[in-house]
Each structure stands twice: as C-alpha cells, then as structure tokens.
Design goal:
By secondary structure, the protein is mainly α. About 45% of the residues lie in helices and about 10% in strands. The longest helix has 19 residues.
Length: about 110
C-alpha cells in the first residue's frame, strides 16, 4: 500500500499512539474533533482506493467521523456524499447495491 504523504515517525511515537488509540466507540465518542486517528476505518479523511492510501484534509467544522454522522440519524445521498467526499451517484449506487442484497436476504 502506498502512502500519499511520506511521514517519518519514531518507533516510540508509534507505540505511544497505538497505546492511546481508542478501541471502541465508547472510547472515542467524546474524543477530540476533528478526529486525529486516521487509521480508524470510520475516519472520513482516510480513503483507500485500489490499494492506495489517500489522506483528505479535514477543514474546520467538517465532519471527521462516519459514526458521528450516522449517530445524528438519516441523511440524503447528497449529504452522505458531501460528508464522505464521494460523488452522490457513487453513494446512490452503494445504497442500491445494499438494498438489493437486503431484499435478497429478506426474500430468502
């Protein structure tokens, strides 16, 4: 996996960061925002596409955690696209695929 930006971090810093990293939603729900944990799979600033890791800059006031967004309830495809940095058509395709799988499971 390639890293979009080259970083130099000492092994002791990595160990300390790993020790402090939240393990559950309860550990991070009241944590700092924007979230500093780019390695979390729910971080909206981290994008893995075709094996390449990309870090999106999170601007002041912009959401950084998908769980924070989901916790506020339902959202339109356009709102979801805005939060994730995706095109709304991609979000609609994902929703359509999920609904198709769900219908298949419900209909047996």
């Amino acid at each position: 996996m390639r890293l979009a930006r080259h970083l130099t971090i000492a092994a002791t810093e990595i160990e300390e960061m790993e020790r402090l990293r939240p393990r559950t939603r309860g550990d991070c729900v009241d944590g700092p925002r924007p979230c500093p944990w780019h390695a979390c799979r729910h971080h909206l600033g981290t994008d893995v596409h075709n094996g390449e890791l990309r870090l999106r800059e999170i601007e002041d006031g912009q959401e950084s955690c998908a769980l924070d967004v989901a916790g506020r309830g339902e959202h339109t495809a356009l709102e979801t696209a805005d939060a994730t940095g995706l095109w709304h058509t991609d979000v609609e395709k994902t929703i359509g695929g999920a609904m198709k799988r769900l219908r298949g499971k419900l209909n047996g």
